[in-house]
Amino acid sequence: MQDETGLLETFDDKVAKEIKIEPRDWMPENYRKNLIRQISQHAHSEIVGMLPEGNWITRAPSLRRKATLIAKVQDEAGHGLYLYSAAETMGITREEMVDQLLTGKAKYSSIFNYPTLTWADIGAIGWLVDGAAIMNQVPLCRTSYGPYARAMIRVCKEESFHQRQGFEILLTLCRGSNEQKDMAQDALNRWWWPSLMMFGPNDDNSPHTAQSMKWKIKRFTNDELRQKFVDICTEQAKILGLTIPDPELKWNDEKKHYDFGEINWDEFWKVVNGDGPCNSERLAARVKAHEDGKWVREAASAYAEKRNRNN
Ligand SMILES: [Fe+2]
Ligand SMILES: [Fe+2]
């Protein structure tokens, strides 16, 4: 049996050599804690993220749009389930995680606390929100924890479908009537800044970043990812013929990147701390869904118990 120092050396060595850490491997307690927090927050975001879009399934403008949106929302449920399973391999139960979400103890991505007011919002979410998710998640396919990294591979393939369907919704609106184009612009105006907030606080305000980079839980910093996102979306907005709502957005030839304006950090912290436009509505919807599903959980466990008795 190795002592703690030996175990830590083996762990660090594996991380350095890009060998995945697996559920039964020894790992530092903080690595475990950090990852449980990260993976469960990610799972909660997938589940809560179904709500703003689910809101438009009954009102999608055509059968094709409806079928695509249903498929997308179902994908998000699947992402939530893989991620809960990945977190469970670290020793937390599904019940504990669900409880943390429903009691408001756990966080999920703040972007889902904004309302979806028009059909164009579904386009903007796919383009920007799933687009930002891809930016965050592609590097996680190489994260040091095996089950998380493997779950991310499939998740990212599905996210890129989500991003394209969103972009295509906006492209169709932008090629339509003036009224449709205005609707697309209005959605971009409302979703742009919250999407930039999805990358989290600035690097000098992000307490977990340094350690998470060292453990290869995170592969790029918040600001690096945000910059990449701005660079890509600015070009894509040109194809749509839409204007990004940032007067300071400007190509910087020296840096070979776009400069952009400052995020409203007061709004960011307000929404993170539970005071966004839809925080209480989202939580209430999850609590209700959980209560409505109680009989299913009871019936399933009664059935499992009966089967175990008969075996
Ligand atoms: Fe997802
Ligand atoms: Fe998605």
Q: Which whole number gives the mean pLDDT?
A: 94
| Helix percentage range | 55-70%
Tally of DSSP helical segments:
13
Shape: globular
Low-confidence stretches: none
**How large is the share of residues in beta strands?**
under 5%
Indicate the structural class.
mainly alpha
Largest sheet: 2 strands, antiparallel
Quick overview of this protein structure:
With 311 residues, this protein is an all-alpha fold. It is 66% helix and 2% strand. It is built from 13 helices and 2 strands; from the N terminus they run ααααααααααββααα.
Task: Please write out the topology.
Blueprint: H1 4-16, H2 29-48, H3 50-54, H4 63-88, H5 94-102, H6 119-137, H7 146-174, H8 178-197, H9 209-214, H10 222-240, E1 250-252, E2 257-259, H11 265-272, H12 279-292, H13 294-310
Antiparallel strand pairs: 1-2
Helix pairs in contact: 2-4, 4-7, 6-7, 6-8, 6-10
The protein binds fe (ii) ion (2 copies).
One fe (ii) ion (FE2) is lined by residues 46, 76, 79, 155, 159.
Write a concise keyword list for the protein shown above:
2 strands, 66% helix, 311 residues, globular, mainly alpha, binds fe (ii) ion, 13 helices, 2% strand, two-stranded antiparallel ribbon
